[in-house]
Amino acid sequence: MKAENAGHALATVLVDELIRAGVAHACLGPGSRSTPLALALDARPEMAVHVSVDERSAAFLALGLAKMSGIPAAVVTTSGTATANLYPAVIEASHARVPMIVLTADRPPELRDTGAGQTIDQVKLYGDAVRWFVEVGVGEPRAESVGYWRSLADRAVAVSRWPSAGPVHLNLAFRNPLIPAADPAGFPYALDGRPDGGPWTEETHSAMDAPAEDLERLKQEIEGTERGLIAVGTGMHDAGPILATARKAAWPVLAEATSNVRTGPPAISTFEALLRRAEFALSHRPELVIRVGNLGTSPSLAALLDSSVRQISVDPRSWLDPSRSLSWMLRAAPDRVFTALAAAISESPRSEWLNGWLEADGRARKSIDTLLNAHGVTEPRIARDLAGCLPDGAVLYVASSMPIRDLDWAMQTRPGLTILANRGANGIDGFVSSVLGAALSRSGPVVALTGDLSLLHDQNGLLGASQDSLDVVFVVVNNDGGGIFSFLPQADQPGFEKLFGTPHGLDFSRLADLYGCGYSLIHDPSDLGPAVLQAVGTGGVHLVEAKTNRQLNVDFHRLMWESVGDSLS
Prior knowledge:
By secondary structure, the chain is α/β, with parallel strands linked by helices. It is built from 21 helices and 17 strands. It has helices spanning 6-20, 35-42, 55-69, 81-84, 87-96, 145-161, 212-223, 239-249, 271-275, 278-283, 299-304, 334-344, 352-374, 379-389, 402-410, 431-440, 452-457, 496-501, 508-515, 528-538, 550-568, and strands at 25-28, 48-51, 73-77, 100-106, 132-135, 167-173, 228-232, 253-255, 288-292, 310-314, 328-330, 394-398, 417-421, 446-451, 472-478, 518-522, 541-547. Helix 1 runs parallel beside helix 6 (145-161), helix 3 (55-69) packs parallel to helix 5 (87-96) and helix 8 (239-249) packs parallel to helix 12 (334-344). It is globular and about 85 Å long. The relative contact order is 0.11.
């Protein structure tokens, strides 16, 4: 490989090395200063390039790709405010531990702080939200430049994945000419990488096993505790070892729907409803809790896990402790820890402790399902039925705010479903693009559960759907505004509807027409499954809308909690 100028060389080498390091997708916001990168990416058939007119959508597309695959995707922008539009996705990737390579083109040093157009201070723009920042510098025609750029790309990919996955930011300055045209200096050196096609610097690492003495200590704590439980938060956790450990210990598992562990016994699907009952919560206080991941959806579980309960966190990341209640943080990979525990601990006989949880869960499950089945289209029923009707192997991507809560509160246990959510910073922004990114990295069905505001907030993401020939179904719960605020104390304040309710009055069938999406409106709960499965079978992007009322939704949730309380009485 040869280059016409140093900027062309920098872009060509960087893209080639990213490919060698395993990066297969680049999400690009069009611009002039990033021309060398755009042309270098497009010249490589091994790299799938996805173009978004909105840089924020491009960044969340990269987030969804990496969340589904575990492999970092690159996001590329020109200089100026385009780089600032990446910030929400960078923050989400940082908090959710999703690998991402952020490549921002920049003006060369002589044009900075001079009033040159489209120039801002991009040095450490994302602060501590990135795992690593490098001011790469302007490409220079030097013999050692190629080794520097290749090593840099490999290190960026490695740091984005290990030990705590997250975004890496490379700021790349380019001088004119921005196209592969000769300049006076040229670039007289070969660009080639390792002759075997591998990365310049290969990086390997071992899994985060817990030390033997820590595993033995944890084993003894479990075997010495009858009233224990395992609480699992959002993540792509392996359900098998966690549930196997719980069965041997005769403990219940309180697994959020987005943990991917609510797949069978002893997972308790109704724990949120049960713990809202003060008498039940008081009589079912555990003596020991093992926590996995970040617990953030259930307020009732948070109230149960106060500092008087001994709690142990098993997670590669430390300080997942907003309540300051943890007694011990074991920094290790949960899947490997629970695989070891399931093999090591002695099997306990099923006790009144576990039996009490399972019996209460059965009563609450029957109460909730009976109530949901007796009513028409309600938000909890949409969440429950959608999770239940999808085929094995499907992905359900759920939006923040009320959809994720309704899924957590109403979803039954079931295996065979992968559930994703943007729960790093818990925002609704970039949801559409994240879902489309997940769809880009797999071949099976991808279905999203979203509120109306989540869809509208990132409707620009739909622009790229037809370009990439994606197959995604968005189930849209349309309550004409921000439904979650109706559950909060603000609901009784003057000006609530204007300041928090934010009604929009938009017709989603017209939105579907605008972006060339399929559309259907369900009037009866029995219509949901057939509408979704038909859309999945048809292919393309579809909106399946269900209209609800915000105030009636609040009333129905209260009725649901009351019915569970009655069943326990």
